[in-house]
Amino acid sequence: MFDNMHHQWLLLAACFWVIFMFMVASKFITLTFKDPEGYSAKQEPLILTAVTKVEEVHVPEEKRWPEVFQPTGKAFSGNLIRQPLVHMERLELLRNVCRDTALRDLSHTEVSKFVLDRIFVCDKHKILFCQTPKVGNTQWKKVLIVLNGAFSSIEEIPENIVHDHEKNGLPRLSSFSDSEIKKRLNLYFKFFIVRDPFERLISAFKDKFVHNPRFEPWYRHEIAPGIIRKYRKNRTETKGLQFEDFVRYLGDPNHRWLDVQFGDHIIHWVTYVELCAPCEITYSVIGHHETLEDDAPYILKAAGIDHLVSYPTIPPGITVYNKTKVQRYFSGISKRDIRRLYARFEGDFKLFGYQEPDFLLN
């Protein structure tokens, strides 16, 4: 009898042990699969907060993460996971650099009429787009023109209409009252595009001073002579504006006296900070020209307009950073002039994660 009782107690203990282990395992499974994609309760939405002078207000739910990017517990493809994280990292970097007091003079600017003139408005879909020339802005303006209803498709827009702001149905933010500006800055989806700052300057130089479209004669006949008179070392040379002259002008700490004479034409080469005030305005997305093939669809999805319009086809290789071209253009420029140029554009390099050029380190 004693042996039987002993076996019964052992059996009972074993049963309790099995039940206990089952409970522990169940709790572990619940905790493990409660958040399968690793999103914590503190996960921030797409629109992060930068150092801003614009009043913070509640952002409508439809302008937060698009549904496809919400953590659903389903297995995401690598691209769907990577894209939101890439853009969150860009905004986080921007926020951190904006807080760097050592770079304050290079990262902060007043939200002036000059900035508001650069921002185009699509009220119908609550979108603001800040124009940063030489990064594919013409195509983005076409997208907004269609969304505003001036034309039914991008293919129908005449090229001479795109930049005619009296006919393209694309208002600037500066055309609204102060209260209406503030409301749009707080509530609308806001984005702009950047590219490597030095490559953008090369693109601006080639487009405006080398190719010089016939409908923009002032670049060659008014602006170029002004730069040459001030910055060309050998005054006996009669050739047109050279890249070396252009670099000296841009890197001159006293460049502003010429900028005033050139007016709004300087938008093709001034800093992103001066154009879009990224530390004062809380942008929703910052696209990069080098990754535009991925960024363009993401921006359309994040703005909730991907079912209405598509970004025009991007020619193969056109957005790839051309390191060889950049090095070639700067090969004949003195280190002193390059350093002065970098000193002016350092804010753009740091805010948007571009590396300091190798030829500055040698």
UniProtKB/TrEMBL annotation:
GO molecular function, one term: sulfotransferase activity
GO terms of biological process kind: carbohydrate biosynthetic process; proteoglycan biosynthetic process
Protein name per its UniProtKB record: Carbohydrate sulfotransferase
Keywords: Carbohydrate metabolism, Glycoprotein, Golgi apparatus, Membrane, Signal-anchor, Transferase, Transmembrane, Transmembrane helix
Keyword set includes Cytoplasm: no
Organism in which the protein naturally occurs: Melopsittacus undulatus
Family of this protein: Belongs to the sulfotransferase 2 family.
Family annotation (InterPro entries): Carb_sulfotrans_8-10 (IPR018011), P-loop_NTPase (IPR027417), Sulfotransferase (IPR005331)
Keyword Glycoprotein: yes
Cellular compartments annotated: Golgi apparatus membrane
EC number(s) on file: 2.8.2.-
Topology of the protein relative to the lipid bilayer: Single-pass type II membrane protein
Cross-referenced SUPFAM superfamilies: P-loop containing nucleoside triphosphate hydrolases
Main location: Golgi
Pfam families named in the record: Sulfotransfer_2
GO cellular component, one term: Golgi membrane
